[in-house]
Amino acid sequence: MSTPHYVTLADSQMRVWRSGSGPDLLVLPSLIEAASVCADRLANALPGWTVTALDLPGTGGSVTSWADDVAGLARLIADAAGRLGLAGCPLLAFDLAAPLARAVPATGWQPDGVLLVDTAIAEGWSERDLRPAPLTPRADGTHLAVLWAHLRDAHVLEPRDASHPARNGAPLPAPRDLDAMLRSAAVAPDRYGALWALCLDAMRGDTRAAAGESRADGLAEVVKHLAPMAAGRKAAAPLPPARPFADPLRVWHDYADTPRGRIHLRRAGRGRPLLAFQSAPGSSAPLLPLLHGLAAEREVIAPDYLGNGESDKPERAVDIGVLADDMLALADALGLDGFDLWGTHTGALVALDLTVRHPERIGRAVLEAPVLIPADFSADILDHYFPPLAADRWGLHLLQAWNMRRDMFLFWPWYRQERAAARDIGVPAATVLHDWTMGLLASGSHYDRSYRAAFRYDTRTALVRLTRPALICAGPADMLVEGLAEAKTLAPAGTEVTPTPATVWYPGQGAQAVRETIDCYAAFLAGKPGTTNPHPVS
Fold first, then answer.
1. Does the pTM of the predicted model rise above 0.90?
2. How many angstroms separate the CA atoms of 271 and 310, rounded?
């Protein structure tokens, strides 16, 4: 399996996927195949090469890297290649990525030859002006179905004749591989549409082969061309670690290798570390307001749980203790001897368990809305909250994920479709709901494991064992806010239990309420007395 890695440029980050062993080969994947899938496919076919496949600018983990023309996009690719130490290696580009590869040598980074693969396919798309339909997020989620149809049809149909299936070409992708490409394209769907348009239009330019440029049709010709070139070349060096931006307050992405798996991180700030644990079932992306709010005084590190978001997806049984052990392994991998914790919902339980079992490592802990609901309610949730979510050949899972996420804002619990279960929080804008849905889709069929763990955990027994300073809180819109009253009766003396003005990671919270809530967290974590909510739970 390919391994993801980030490289930090001056104003953005790009992500690459590395697979195989041997000398370096830099790859610009097709606009219809995920870089991760491309890296593994090439490494299997070319065992003598180390394949480094780039998430193209504007897609996947490279979404923040963007330019409005092919030359600018090529400069970003060359900058990433240089910073990764990929000097003088061959450059391979598939179909619509050909214009990007052809523009790279003019940037100053010189590959050892450019191999363009399946350009006839891209020329066919250009000839009939194939473009995605508008991909701006819609309130009903159908833009995801439109994107899926575009990607699938590009694989299935003749490039020059959309009325017939293509009889030749690479094997059709499995649903999980097509899903990987959709998730890469849908990080910023409008930007993906713009990338497609730039490359498509550039295909209509000069098609004559440039110096050092070769072409191949299909993987067999790629192997025939590249296999003899591996002999005598130096083996690839390890990729350098990802770096923060010069501005310490900017959020940057990183990975940490632990004995339990590779964990994706969002990081910002400097100073005493704070590990921030997400709710389930998506990624830590909704915690960005927390990172922005607290990074001025400390380093905030928000991991995706193993099994969730962009972290590894190990096959294993999951409970809160397992997730807490994962986070302890993360702290060890990052060299954190002492640190503070912040967690919400499932994350509150992970923080609680870690604090109770390893108090010697923890300074202070903010536990937002730990799960404290009746046992029969937990049992009902475990029975109905977690339908299977798996990639489907026609993309049916996309609307399932969208409507699950949307209904979580409409009802509590989301599957209880009745007036009495209506919530007051409001459905967020389509762009926000899109991001939340993408986090769920990133977790895939593993999405429910950490989620289920929260409703199986014995929160009450753990709370009474707290020995470190803790703040238990919840905003008024939180569906678990009623648990504060019980938390007040269970928490040891000295634990602060109080409502907060907002749940900062919920969309639609007032700016003033968010600032006041961030101030509550900061004051508690700094050990300042008397600075939390003046109206605590009685």
1. yes
2. 25
